[in-house]
Amino acid sequence: MLVLSLAFAGWAFWRSRQTPAPPPVTVAQVPTQTAPPPPPLTYSCPLDGSQQTNKANTLNRPIVVQIDNAPDARPQWGLSQADIVYEEMAEGQITRFSAIFACHDASTVGPVRSARMIDLELAPEYGALLSDSGSSQGVTANLDAAPDIPNITDSTFPTAYHRTTDRYAPHNLITSTAGIRKAVAAAGVPTQANLEGPQFKTDSPGPATVKTIKVDYSPWADISYTYDQASNSWLRFNGGKADTDALTGKQIAPKNVIIQYVQVLDSGIVEDASGEHGLQFTLTGSGKVQIFRDGQVLSGQWQRQSKGAITSYIDANGNPIPLDVGQTWIEVVPTDFQASWG
User: Fold this and answer.
1) Mean pLDDT of the chain, nearest integer
2) What percent of the chain has pLDDT above 70?
3) Which of 20, 221, 309, 310 has a 20 to 30 A CA-CA distance from 302?
């Protein structure tokens, strides 16, 4: 018994001399370092330079919509949503709009009116679909002879159009970009295109040397623009009144205004019941141009080699004149037209 006690005491003494086991170490959880997600890919719209997150938007085949500018047609729908808007004289001392939609859509566009000879220049330039309410015999004959221009009228594609009840015909025919694309896709018409456009730059407003632009087509189309420094855009007026978009309720305010001087001829085509002849605009070749951007005016030349080519804008040294990113309005005027600004 004594031996066991001594043995136990020896074991206890030995045990007491051993280094105690360290407590378990708790390893701190170090947060996993993750790289920030890459910025979303963006794609540049060829016609207005805007950045698009959906590449498909930049591949949309443009639509040229012929839009009414008679007094009873105002305010129009969707003009502020277009990539580019051309304004040109029609018969009866009023103008018409050729609004081009590619990267941007509008749920309501109009009032849609009949095609004119200028559409035979603009549709090939942009490889575009043409939206109109039909055309005179002379214009129809020219469109029939141009099979590369899909003519999307309310009679051939009725599902793409409707008439509003708050205006009288013919100033109440309405369409939409989605409606046109859906209708032509169902008919097997191509709705995509590889587009080209002018060069673009970022805004660079400085002291404004131009505050007002005046393009007096006629007493019924007395057009002016006022420069807005805050938005670096040109507020549009018609007859001294703010020109608004019925779709948005806001004043139309393009980033660029271009006055393009072209040869204008009598087409010999009767366009209305009074016997008025339509006009033919020569948009190939070259001519004088004034470009208004950033509160400034730049003078140069427009150039277009063929009907399938995009118009370029060149300064006195032969260098391209880039536009500000955003909507452009192009005022098409005769070579002897007297625009003014200051």
Assistant:
1) 90
2) 90
3) 221
